[in-house]
Input
Amino acid sequence: MVESSKRDSGRPAAGSRIGVVGSNMVDLVTYIDRMPEAGETLAAPSFSMGHGGKGANQAVAAARLGAEVMLVSRVGDDLFGEGTIRNFQEAGIDARHVRAVPGTQSGVAPIFVEPSGENRILIVKGANEHLLPSDVEAAAAELRSCGLILLQLEIPLETVYHTIAWAAREGIEVLLNPAPATPELDVGRVLAATFLVPNQTELAIMTGLPTGTREEAERAARVLVEKGVRTVIVTLGAEGALLVTAEAVRHVPPVTVRPRDTSGAGDAFIGAFAQHYVRSHDIEAAMAWGAAYAADSITRPGTQKAFADAERFEAFRASLP
Ligand code: RIB
Output
């Protein structure tokens, strides 16, 4: 069993509450036969609207599986914002630090899903750009009770750096999902995070290296470990996931399903990983749990809409060979 090295250091066991400092979006999902060419208009089979955003998705996945989750996020002062806050409350998430920013619009994400289930996502960050370090300070008392904080890159980088530094001072573990990837991310300022969880594209952008195969992804992840990242978990889509630390490399095999819509699969993996990890502190077991949860989610359309609750996930696991 590979455990977090921080836990091995004798630090007192933290709580099983999960904090998320991150984004929310309204997903505008169009199911297409193919992308139109420039200047071409094309009819598409169907459209669906739902709650999304990487931070929100991860929070909802963990909460659906029974984790206690609190979220720090910003919405616009519009109807989408009101609906988003209601959605968090319905999911049982502590949303006291999800607030509307006057004069802004809520984040939206036009998503295009091909018949193979492959997705293409645009994001308009809107109010998410207004989630500031001072908002994290304002939520410090609640965040202090968390055993793990989840971060992504749909909010200002300064807020990400600030949260990581603050959590390190407080002795709270952090999982950074560097998504969407940006070459502006300063790896030197995220080294205090316990986990870095990129997909292959994000890993390629962060390292400038090829990551198309499992071997390439491992080599690229090692570069990050050599820079001082403690634990790299690469999500490999249909290939499962890869754990790379200074001491170990482990491959967690995929759970094979027929994909309907892969959008949000990475968030499903992380939310479920977090929910398992805060109770077990067993990284490999949490990865296998996350991989199964993500596999189940891609059999249904949508992002949060596709995330199972604990009962439904148990039924999925029971149906596996
Ligand atoms: O990871 C999937 C998510 O990315 C979508 O829900 C969309 O909102 C974008 O944030």
